[in-house]
Design a protein that fits this description.
The complex is a heterodimer. By secondary structure, chain A is mainly alpha-helical. Chain A is 73% helix and 1% strand. Chain B folds into 3 domains: 15-101 and 168-247, P-loop containing nucleotide triphosphate hydrolases (Rossmann fold), CATH 3.40.50; 253-343 and 430-511, Rossmann fold (3-Layer(aba) Sandwich); 358-429, no CATH class. Chain B contains 17 helices and 21 strands. Chain B is globular, with a radius of gyration of 25 Å. Classes of the chains: A mainly alpha, B alpha/beta. The interface between A and B is medium-sized, with 24 and 26 residues.
């Protein structure tokens, strides 16, 4: 039994690392966007479109990294469009986000049909488990470089939000639009750029889905991870470093179902697979009651006002 | 940016406006306004609400472009197309609302206010420079504190520091002391006056507190309905003269007539009432108070010390976390049934937000208390629109509400008429308990007099009145007893004859 538990443990570590990467990218993108005072619920669309574009480009050009960039590009387009529409008067960013979720998903399904069958070159993983003789450990520590890129990005974002003019400008715009305007800052431009950059990150997260894990393109690929990442940002209280921890937690929860299945636990398979969703729900309830979350939320967010 | 600790030369700017005229549609907000503010003076701009003070300074600041006229800085005509341009000339303004970013620290706010903030900030060097700057300043604010955690008075100080940090030498202050305790206000104004006397800065202060004008200003200009109605030396002009310039030839209000009250059991009684804000902080802490029939108890305090939260508790907008309330000895909870049963009525602050539904009609808003009871509602609980409207028309006439018709949305009315609508609804029946919060905020003289008379009338007819106001003069005029609220706690209520302004001011600061 203890060997089984160890297997579950390794699988969850590996799962936390693998499954967390798209969560992390979308969460960082959403974190940046929300820091500027806007919510982009459409990042689920970015994620799926990014996955499709990355897969298609990788298939057609043979370069998965080009696919990653293309996915980011597609994300920028969606994010910038969201940012541009939201600056029109009396537009609600949440409604626009929902529309963009459908748009991104629809575009991906429409253009992605021909790519469901063929196999595209995938991103190579780095074997980080060479020090261990245990094949399970080696298997768990097949880490995709994008995971490290995500962690570095989180640190950079955390640092930039407090030590650069651009970072402080984003926070000012997100916390007090009137003050930012009084300083001559064009808040719409800042938000547009933040949303576009957030869209880029979400697109890259999508590339991970189709080019690394699970590593193929189909229409059920994301299963709502983009939306969960939005909840994750609230849980992380708009702190990029806490986004990393939250993403790992979500990743581990997502790996619970498959790893239990690996040791032959057959009952409750769907229940364990639903772990991340239950976690999301629990976190939403908990953070809705959390007073510190209420205090750290950017004050310009439409849900906070 | 900063002139490095250089001896501050005669750097104060003089500013003159020449015949500034500004219209908004058919309304002429400023009509040929000429004001002279000499270098190094502390000039007061006086006027009632809507007299054009804000419009004038916004023209100077470049928010508005005047239709005619010019702004001269040190005798030179200046084009001020934007606030940025005004700031570049050394003109800075402290607004009534804060322009600080709550999630940033004081230091971050100061550095980001600079036009030349570097792309990557070296916090060690910035902090050292800011400390050096603070050492030269007459008052300090904790640099590392998040602005959200600063008190209103500290924020106001930081706003002023920000202007000095940006090297602005002509400061426009828009009612800077409204959020400060009298002590804080005196401190800040004394220091600014000192800087002006040393000719480091020039100050133009919008105010309608004569006391501050007499104590700190050397010259003044009065605006009334967009025109200059007077000005001169603030030290020689008398308060009566200034107020005559402000309000025209109407007489100043007397202290409202009152009949002696009959000693009685407290009608409204609060015991250990507590409440928390959204973040769980105690904003009302164990407040106990009794108000007798035919008595007005005034609660004074600097805004943001829990007065609004207390009113929200009493009107059922905020849950009570502890304590209990009684009316005539019977337990009272702030719900509609109890409001009716105990005849509890209220005039909350910001009536457009707290007392009316802005988009519903005047008649509907007037009927909120009674629309579901006879005679407005029929036997099946169906409302009769005709009766509701007739009732509305009658109240509109009786309370002199100026509206297009009873069907006009209440948001189309002026501030004074919105307040009259609420007054008509709340005071037209029998009133046993009346809860009033800042009833005259932002209203013109005529409305103020009328509303205060109505409140006094209710008292004389035997209502227990709780008056919460940030305007100390209003409380001194109306109240029988005065208590001071500070940081959520309520001090003892003392008879108005046994206290004075200085004593109240001290208690407002929490001493």
């Amino acid at each position: 039994m203890s060997a089984d538990l160890l297997i579950v443990f390794y699988a969850m570590i590996g799962g936390a690392i693998r499954v967390s990467t798209p969560f992390l990218f979308v969460a960082l993108g959403e974190c940046l966007t929300e820091k500027s005072g806007r919510i982009n619920l459409g990042l689920e669309g970015n994620l799926i479109l990014g996955a499709m574009v990355a897969y298609a480009v990788s298939y057609n050009n043979g370069s998965p990294w080009l696919g990653v960039l293309a996915a980011g590009g597609a994300g920028v387009v969606l994010g910038a469009a969201h940012g541009w529409i939201c600056k029109l008067p009396k537009v609600n960013d949440i409604a626009v986000g929902l529309a963009f979720m459908s748009l991104g998903t629809g575009l991906a399904f429409f253009f992605g049909k021909p790519y469901i069958q063929p196999s595209a070159p995938r991103l190579a993983s780095l074997p980080m488990g060479g020090w261990s003789q245990n094949p399970q450990v080696q298997q768990a520590l097949q880490v995709n470089p994008l995971f490290f890129v995500g962690i570095v990005l989180a640190v950079v974002l955390w640092w930039a939000l407090r030590n650069t003019r651009a970072g402080l400008t984003v926070r000012m715009v997100g916390d007090s639009a009137a003050s930012a305007r009084a300083m001559g800052i064009n808040i719409n431009t800042v938000r547009l750029l933040a949303t576009a950059a957030g869209g880029f990150l979400a697109g890259v997260g999508g590339a991970f889905l189709s080019l690394s894990y699970p590593g193929s393109w189909n229409e059920g690929l994301s299963s709502g991870q983009g939306l969960m990442a939005v909840a994750l940002v609230i849980f992380a209280r708009w702190n990029p470093l806490r986004c990393v921890l939250a993403a790992l937690l979500f990743g581990a929860a997502g790996a619970l179902g498959p790893s239990l299945q690996a040791i032959g636990v057959t009952y409750g398979y769907h229940f364990f697979n639903a772990a991340p969703y239950i976690l999301t729900l629990g976190i939403m309830v908990a953070s809705a009651r959390s007073k510190s979350a209420a205090q750290e939320a950017p004050r310009e967010l439409s849900i906070v006002k | 940016m900063m002139t490095e600790a250089a001896p501050l030369r005669t750097r104060a700017l003089s500013l003159t406006t020449e015949g500034i005229t500004k219209s908004f549609g058919p309304m002429r907000a400023l009509d040929d306004v000429s004001v002279q503010v000499g270098a190094g003076s502390f000039h007061a701009l006086l006027g009632e609400n809507g007299a054009g003070k804000s419009t004038l300074v916004k023209c100077v600041m470049g928010f508005y472009q005047a239709d005619a006229g010019a702004v001269l800085l040190d005798g030179t005509r200046m084009a001020l197309p934007s606030p940025r341009a005004a700031q570049a000339q050394g003109i800075g303004m402290v607004y009534q609302h804060f322009t600080l970013v709550p999630c940033l620290t004081a230091a971050e706010n100061l550095v980001m206010a600079r036009a030349d903030a570097p792309a990557v900030l070296n916090w060690r060097a910035e902090t050292r420079a800011l400390e050096a700057f603070m050492d030269r300043m007459p008052f300090r604010v904790r640099l590392g504190a998040q602005v959200a955690d600063l008190s209103a008075g500290e924020k106001q100080k930081l706003e002023i520091l920000k202007l000095l940090y940006l090297d602005q030498r002509f400061l426009i202050l828009d009612e800077p002391t409204s959020v400060m305790t009298p002590g804080e206000a005196d401190e800040v104004l004394t220091l600014l006056r000192g800087m002006a006397e040393r000719r480091e800065i020039t100050v133009l202060m919008i105010s309608h507190k004569f006391r501050e004008v007499k104590a700190f200003c050397d010259s003044f200009t009065v605006l009334r309905r967009g025109q200059v109605t007077g000005g001169g030396d603030a030290q020689t002009a008398s308060v009566a003269e200034m107020s005559r310039m402000m309000i025209g030839e109407t007489t100043l209000r007397e202290r409202a007539a009152r009949q002696d009250r009959v000693a009685a059991q407290p009608r409204l009684s609060l015991q250990d009432v507590s409440a928390v804000d959204e973040t769980g902080r105690h904003v009302v802490e164990r407040v106990s108070l009794g108000i007798g029939a035919g008595e007005i108890v005034g609660i004074a305090g600097v805004s943001g010390n829990g007065q609004s939260a207390l009113v929200e508790v009493l009107s059922g907008q905020r849950p009570m976390t502890g304590g209990h309330m009684t009316v005539d000895g019977a337990p009272f909870s702030p719900r509609r049934a109890d409001f009716d049963r105990f005849k509890v009525f209220g005039l909350p602050e910001e009536p457009l937000r707290n007392a009316v539904v802005p988009r519903m009609s005047v008649a509907e808003n007037l009927a909120f208390r009674r629309f579901d009871k006879p005679p407005l509602a029929g036997r099946l609980g169906l409302i009769s629109p005709a009766r509701l409207r007739a009732e509305g028309d009658a109240l509109i006439r009786r309370y002199n509400v100026k509206t297009r018709s009873a069907d006009a949305p209440v948001e189309t009315l002026s501030g004074g008429n919105v307040q009259r609508t609420v007054l008509a609804r709340e005071l037209s029946g029998d009133v046993d308990v009346l809860i009033v919060a800042n009833p005259c905020f932002g209203l013109d003289f005529a409305s103020v007099a009328e509303i205060r008379a109505q409140i006094m009338d209710q008292r004389n007819r035997g209502a227990a009145v709780l008056l919460i106001s940030e305007d100390l003069d209003e409380i001194l005029e109306l109240a029988d007893r005065i208590a001071v609220m500070s940081e959520g706690r309520l001090g003892p209520a003392t008879a108005v004859e046994d206290t004075d302004r200085a004593e109240i001011g001290r208690r407002m600061g929490g001493h």
